[in-house]
């Protein structure tokens, strides 16, 4: 088992969060990574500092103009000559029929909602979040000894809501999609197993018409719950990708038993697909006391989840994404890691 992270992921520090009609306290904060990093330290597990892989795997998934916006949008925002605040943030959402002339138009085009502001150091963290994930993928691509069968990436900001050309849901670059695409250089079939509280509509959209990447997600029912426009059972894929997108939306208030009933169904789909590599999008926001939770998973439940993923007996890259009950992230990650280490 190998764990990756990078300190520069802490530089992104959102000041604004506009959701459901009002400004709210940002939940995707640097303290999340600080707490996550405590778990391997307490357990005596080494954390490897991610090395730079480069921009090319990112551009294999995301539009060039969109990546340029993420990288340079803050500079353009501050150079506009207007008093517009300290973050790139918009209340105008116009992705279509938008020529992107001016930073306000670009924000309207590339920011899908009010939860993904861009500050002075955001791009640095966004970039190193993707690089952290890519380190695990590169390890598998170069591994001849099968020493990299389980790899964990402590990443922020998260990625599964990011579309090819827009940010939203605290996400900017779609790490799961980036590493899945990167892995296809060597492997034939990749399965993305998403157990975050929210549906990863960005992953779904990117691979919706393809059969080389299976996407299966267990998440809260998206009716009146983020991302609201995707994640329903009838969304099965398109063209040759039909049947390779499987959603398991949970009724709000689902207990731990119900959560694992859905997870088990998702795992059976993965087994049937028989992938070469599994990418597990792990969200600690399914924890019972998380401010985003619509289900009730206990700390011990994360140990159970880890055992189920390990039992698939495939190379797996685990992307730690959601989870906003900061005071429990350390404990919950320790439970998950103990499930991976367990000999049971």
Automatic annotation (TrEMBL):
Keywords: Hydrolase, Metal-binding, Zinc. Residues 1-28 are annotated as: Disordered. Signal peptide: none annotated. Residues 28-339 form the Histone deacetylase domain. GO terms for biological process: epigenetic regulation of gene expression. This is Acetylpolyamine aminohydrolase. It holds the Pfam family Hist_deacetyl.
């Amino acid at each position: 088992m190998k764990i990756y992270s990078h300190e520069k992921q802490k530089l992104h520090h959102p000041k604004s969060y506009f959701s459901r009609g009002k400004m709210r306290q940002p939940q995707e904060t640097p303290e999340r990574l600080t707490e996550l990093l405590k778990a391997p330290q307490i357990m005596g597990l080494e954390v490897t500092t991610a090395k730079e892989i480069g921009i090319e795997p990112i551009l294999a998934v995301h539009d060039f103009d969109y990546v340029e916006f993420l990288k340079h949008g803050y500079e353009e925002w501050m150079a506009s000559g207007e008093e517009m605040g300290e973050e790139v943030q918009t209340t105008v959402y116009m992705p279509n029929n938008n020529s992107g002339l001016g930073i306000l138009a670009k924000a309207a085009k590339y920011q899908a909602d009010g939860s993904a502001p861009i500050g002075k150091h955001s791009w640095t963290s966004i970039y190193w979040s993707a690089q952290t994930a890519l380190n695990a993928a590169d390890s598998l691509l170069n591994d001849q000894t099968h020493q990299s069968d389980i790899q964990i990436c402590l990443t922020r900001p998260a990625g599964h809501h990011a579309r090819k050309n827009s940010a939203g849901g605290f996400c900017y670059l779609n790490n799961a999609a980036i590493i899945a695409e990167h892995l296809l250089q060597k492997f034939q079939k990749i399965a993305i197993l998403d157990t975050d509280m929210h549906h990863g509509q960005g992953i779904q959209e990117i691979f919706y018409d393809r059969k080389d990447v299976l996407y299966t997600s267990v998440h809260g029912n998206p009716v009146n719950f983020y991302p609201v426009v995707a994640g329903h059972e009838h969304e099965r894929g398109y063209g040759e990708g039909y049947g390779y997108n499987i959603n398991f939306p949970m009724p709000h208030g689902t207990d731990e038993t119900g959560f694992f009933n859905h997870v088990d169904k998702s795992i059976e789909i993965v087994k049937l697909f028989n992938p070469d590599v599994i990418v597990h999008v792990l969200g600690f926001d399914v924890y019972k006391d998380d401010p985003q939770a619509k289900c009730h998973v206990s700390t011990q439940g994360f140990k159970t989840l880890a055992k189920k993923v390990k039992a698939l007996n495939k190379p797996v890259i685990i992307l730690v994404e959601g989870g906003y009950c900061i005071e429990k992230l350390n404990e919950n990650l320790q439970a998950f890691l103990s499930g991976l280490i367990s000999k049971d």
